[in-house]
Amino acid sequence: MSHRATPKVELHLHLEGAAPPRLIADMAKERGINLNGVFAEDGSYAYRDFWHFLEVYEAATSVLTSPEDYQRLTRAVLAESAAQGVIYTEAFLSPDFCGGRDVGAWKEYLHAIREAAEAAERQDGITMRGIVTCIRHFGPDKARETARCAAETMGDFLTGFGIAGDEKSGQARDFDYAFDMAREAGLRLTAHAGEWRGPKGIVATLDHLKPERLGHGVRAIEDPELVDRIAAEGIVLEVCPGSNVTLGVYPDWQRHPVQLLREAGVKVTVSTDDPPFFHTTMTREFDMLADTFGWEDADFLDLNRTAMNAAFCDETTRAAKLKILEGAA
Ligand code: ADE
Ligand code: ZN
Fold first, then answer.
1. Which domains are delineated in the chain?
2. 274 CB under 6 A from ligand 1?
3. Is the CB of 96 under 6 A from ligand 1?
């Protein structure tokens, strides 16, 4: 059975990573940019592994060079999310790609993204909030500049700060200054960890960056004490099973730990990460959870509630979305 009509809450979506390949190809053509190597013959994104994925991601993103481009991108991404039943989404935004971390330029990009999000809300009822993410393999100095962009624009739309990119690059403590700055500005925090590094990387991330949510976090399953800690501290996991299986973190859905983590009392949510790159949608994630682990309507309601309660939004928005979820149950 398809879960397309089931309402969904998504907390982990990279804006550029959600770009329809068609949109990127069209923009490249309009500007005469050669994107050799970015696309497979069937028009989907082509990459060999996670590290090559990061390169292709940056190459595809290089065609997005103005606030207007990001407005077009945001419109396309939110229209697709809404079509998949998503009623609330949090998107990772990158000042690195939006104006090269210049605060003035970043403000213009963010304004354009926000206008597109408001149009999508009026048209499709989908609500978006933004989380600025620094990119780990760009290093701690750029991360500070990114945190400054976030701190200068924090408010009811830009509500969070995080870190993405190559988890194997540097140590969590290298980024504590950026996270401290974001925390002091009042931003809520999430960090990618436990995707490419195991429990030690997760512990360092929790101890140094003190996020309330983890992007992925799934490799905590390799250490039962860490699973207990995550459950006891109420750390929320933004689990992206389709992404993990496509990138080879786990060989198949059956062996993905999402069910075990949930059974251990961890607050689990489910997202797509970079849907066209991983040939997935929120509908497919729900369908696969139902097919693989037998999840039913009550499980999806619980999943959505957990996500909405962990959302980086104001209480009025949270209450309104929870009401929609309860009404649909
Ligand atoms: N950037 C986009 N997708 C990512 C992922 N899955 N992990 C780390 N950085 C990313
Ligand atoms: Zn991610």
1. 8-18+66-328 (3.20.20.140), 20-63 (no CATH)
2. yes
3. no
